[in-house]
Design brief:
Beta Polymerase, domain 2; 5 domains; Hypothetical protein af1432; single chain; five-stranded mixed beta sheet
């Protein structure tokens, strides 16, 4: 960070931002504590005086921006605002947490301390060396969830100002934001922040694609809003006649959500029809329940527009795990397009916008059995038995961040919420770890199903157990929830400890029976560890306890007999020394120059200095990055590859910006899939387009026809992404071809 005196204009800018913060705070229902906020601002301003961000602006503008996000976009109060203003003081200056406690009290100091602890680790430069700092983040969920909320606000402002960072830093920060922060914000109910974090991550990872979709969206936004006004007019009139105070807004999809729809549907921007959603927020009458009034408004809407029978979502009867409540209905608009309408009360909207912070305001009584509180309890369970491997631990925790749910019933009719994709075995572990361990089968809707059965909304699930049943390693392939995975981990850890204890006892008994071995126990153990290539005694004891290593030849291992051949003198000519040269494929991969984080992929170095990763199969033209592994090998991944997402969020210093500079010398095998109407000659026209018009060679073709529909898979040789996209565009224009897409095939 730079350091220099602030100008008078900068001081005025800082003061204006602080006054804007106080103005935001004044418009909240919180008890006004302006004095302590002013004290925190003055203290932070003095501590950071003269320090500048990479963009050149005074550093204090960052804590001020984070504080404004806390109050405006999350709805937090004075304690969190002070913590946001002070969140970098301990890390970046000579002040300590004790100093903060003395000046601002223990609660603010505790939050600042929590924020300081999680500044590194998974989210720092030493990303995945260990999980301890990441655990600090999660532990604060139990201690004071405001630490996590302020951290999310901090990340949001960092993402809003990411343009000042170098490209490889952008990849790392955007990657970990998409991997951890956006799902975490979603789980805590901060949907607007989650949406913005995803969109900003996409913007910095795919700048050209983001800009292209953004420009197209801007071009149609005016017509979308005009359609909204036509759509909204009769609904507004009806709700007004019903005596409601309400607001009705149009919400245009983000660039990221449009891109996701384009990818999932394999369609062009012009074919994404649900660009707009409508939100109705109303003040309910006190004489009726909120639920009844939401359904009354639903009835009013469907008087004018026909609803889609399969796209009604009742999140009021069964709120989402992050506390979200609303009634969603998709109706046919005036121009034949589907429009989703979200119906919320003021209270529901507050929870939807401000997430867990708002959720606190509406708690009643001492205990709360909401889905969000159940999730927080699951976090405590995860933290009680963390994986020793940092990446396993992070991946395991991520399973708990996604808030898409299915609702199922117990045999007695009690409703249970499970993450989408959960299996019958997941359900057993959700009920209790012992039920999961002894689960031998399940009945769903009174029909016997396997443990791997994937639960569907409305299923009634009965778990069958047996004391003779115990978990198998194969069960890992049947579970998707972190609770079940943690239950299996804990069971197998206990079993391993039993085997280790049993194996150690057997080993010591065997050594004690031989006087020479017993006399030199430690040396004997060291030789046996070396013989079996074990690093730790527990590894040896485990295999002894499991019966994989026998103990009837310990003496021969410790005191091996010397072979007579080793004493026979060599007679005749000495053997010649053969010099083994490394083969071309075994040569050491050339590392990028130290200090440079940008690599250029050329026809000469592809496959030699740089390896194209098989997981995502990048070709010239794809947006890619480089990852330097521990052996010095540079792997090239697509930026949006699942594995690359993990690498970006975990190995920031090993991520390199990569650009292509190839000249159509090498061809790459790509797989395309197509589907269409099976009319005479249609596939011949596809082949002609590929071979005659584009002069592209085929490697393999597989086509099947069923009930008038043909499906084909083809492996072709292309030079780069541009050529592939031109070909796909040309094939789409062939009459009767309905779908064609590129697929990743290892």
């Amino acid at each position: 960070m730079q350091k220099s005196e602030f100008t008078e204009a900068e001081e005025q800018m800082i003061q204006r931002e602080f006054e804007a913060l106080l103005d935001d705070y004044a418009h909240t229902p919180h008890r006004q504590k302006v004095e302590i906020i002013t004290h925190a601002f003055n203290f932070a301003h003095k501590a950071h005086y003269g320090v500048r961000r990479l963009s050149g602006e005074p550093y204090i503008m960052h804590p001020l921006a984070v504080a404004r996000i806390c109050v405006r976009e999350i709805g937090l109060g004075s304690t969190s605002i002070c913590a946001a203003l002070l969140h970098d003081v301990v890390e970046d200056t000579d002040y300590t947490v004790e100093d903060i406690a003395g000046l601002f009290g223990d609660k603010i100091a505790q939050i600042v301390s929590g924020l300081t602890k999680i500044s590194g680790g998974v989210f720092g430069d030493q990303a995945s060396e260990q999980a301890e700092n990441f655990r600090h983040l999660l532990l604060t969920i139990n201690e004071d969830i405001r630490v996590v909320l302020v951290k999310i606000a901090d990340r949001l402002h960092n993402m809003r100002t990411l343009g000042a960072q170098p490209k490889e830093k952008q990849y790392k920060i955007a990657g970990e934001t998409e991997y951890i922060y956006a799902p975490l914000a979603h789980r805590l109910g901060l949907f607007p922040i989650k949406t913005e974090l995803e969109d900003l991550s996409f913007k910095y990872e795919h700048p050209e694609t983001w800009q292209e979709i953004h420009d197209k969206l801007e071009a149609v936004k005016a017509s979308q809003l005009e359609s909204f006004e036509q759509f909204a007019k009769p609904i507004r009139e009806r709700l007004t006649s019903m005596g409601y105070t309400f607001s009705m807004k149009a919400r245009i999809k983000t660039v990221y959500s449009i891109w996701k729809k384009m990818m999932s549907k394999q369609c062009a921007f012009e074919d994404v029809y649900d660009l707009m959603a409508v939100r109705i927020i109303f003040t309910p009458h006190e004489t009726m329940s909120e639920k009844d009034q939401c359904w009354m408004i639903y009835s009013a809407i469907t008087e004018f527009y026909r609803p889609h029978p399969e796209r009604i979502r009742d999140w009021i009867s069964t709120p989402k795990a992050n506390g979200y409540e609303a009634l969603h209905v998709t109706v046919m608009g005036t121009h034949g397009e589907w429009i989703e309408v979200q119906i919320r009360t003021d209270r529901m909207n507050e929870i939807a916008e401000h997430g867990y912070a708002a959720h606190w305001k509406y708690k009643t009584g001492v205990s709360d059995d909401s889905e969000l509180d159940k999730w927080l309890q699951e976090i405590k369970d995860i933290l009680a038995h963390p994986d020793t491997n940092a990446m396993d631990f992070i991946g395991n925790f991520r399973l708990n961040l996604f808030a898409q749910e299915v609702f199922v019933f117990t045999p007695t009719g009690e409703i249970k919420t499970m993450p989408a994709g959960s299996t019958a075995l997941d359900f057993a572990f959700m009920l209790h770890s012992e039920i999961g361990e002894h689960c031998m089968g399940a009945k769903v809707n009174h029909t016997l199903v396997p443990l791997s059965y994937q639960l569907k909304g409305g299923d009634q699930v009965e778990i069958m157990t047996s004391n003779s049943q115990h978990p198998q390693k194969e069960w890992y392939n049947m579970v998707t929830t972190s609770k079940a995975r943690n239950g299996l981990n804990e069971y197998f850890r206990k079993e391993e400890r039993k085997y280790i204890k049993h194996g150690e006892r057997l080993f010591n008994d065997a050594v004690a029976m031989d006087k020479d071995l017993a006399k030199n126990h430690d040396q004997a153990l060291a030789r046996i560890l070396s013989y079996y290539q074990k690093n730790k005694p527990d590894e040896l004891y485990l295999e002894i306890g499991q019966g994989a290593i026998r103990l009837d030849n310990l003496r021969e291992i410790v005191y091996p007999r010397r072979s007579l051949l080793s004493y026979v003198p060599f007679i005749g000519k000495k053997p010649s020394v053969v010099s083994v040269q490394p083969s071309e494929e075994n040569k050491e991969i050339v590392k990028p120059q130290k200090g440079r984080h940008r690599i250029i992929l050329t026809d000469e170095n592809l496959g030699k200095e740089y390896i194209l990763s098989p997981c995502c199969h990048p070709i010239p033209g794809d947006e890619v990055l480089g990852y330097l592994d521990e052996k010095g090998t540079m792997h090239i991944h697509k930026i949006d590859c699942d594995e690359a997402m993990v690498l970006k969020s975990s190995f920031g210093k090993r991520i390199y910006e990569a650009t292509w500079n190839t000249h159509r010398v090498q061809s790459f095998v790509e797989t395309i899939e197509l589907k269409g109407i099976d009319k005479f000659g249609v596939f011949i026209r596809v082949l002609q387009k590929i071979t005659t018009d584009f002069h592209i060679n085929l490697r393999s073709v597989n086509v099947v026809s069923d009930d008038g529909i043909f499906k084909g898979t083809m492996e072709i040789y292309v030079y780069d992404r541009s050529e592939l996209e031109q070909l796909l565009k040309a094939i789409r224009q062939i009459e009767d071809v309905k779908e064609v897409k590129r697929v990743i095939k290892e």
